[in-house]
Amino acid sequence: MKAAPSAQLRLMDLNRVDTTLIQLSHRRRSLPEHREVLRLQGELATLEDELTAAETAVSDAELEQSRLEDELTPVRDRRARDQQRIDSGEVTNAKALHGLVEEAAHLDRRIGELEDTQLEAMERLEEASAARDEVKARHTDLDTRLGEAVEARTRVAREIETDAKAQLAERARIVKDLPADLYALYEKRRQHVGTGAALLVARRCEGCGLALNAADLRRYSAAAPDDVLQCAECGRILVRTEASGL
Fold it and tell me: Where are the alpha helices (DSSP H) in 178-235?
């Protein structure tokens, strides 16, 4: 294949752009901002489970508090009715009055037991509410941090996308300057080894690092300036300059 030395040299501009595009693609896939988002999402998922458990504990404590209140109310009402009958003097039978007084005493003990249980339930409700509020505060803080991390990732991704678009536009301009057959060979080699061309510097391919053997050196030295050479090891198009050592 033949191509003007200037066209061959232009391949190095294309090579530089393609290398930059590869770097941008790798950077996009391995953003530390993305890893931070994933880490915070994992923490938030764990914290949401913790928050659900805390809210359930509060709900259970509230139900217990309501149940105890429902149990205590009729006992208090009955105690009040007994006291009213005792105080009114309507019960004149001594035995009946004694039974009423004993029942009132029993109700007092029962009320005391229920109130103690209710107090313990109130303390559990306060503790559960405090624990839930603490988890809520951590959840809010973590959610805020996650939002900030997502914004940072989006910002960096947009910067990369902007750079990539600029590189693609530059690539299109370079490709227009190249002969079609030279570009086709470049693309074929790029698909195989990542970059399609490399400088030949000091008798060594900068793509794979292979030094020319004696036979290649003679062959390359005898080649015309517009001959398109390829590395015997990696197949990249070898671009010659004054530093090639031929």
Answer: 180-193, 214-222
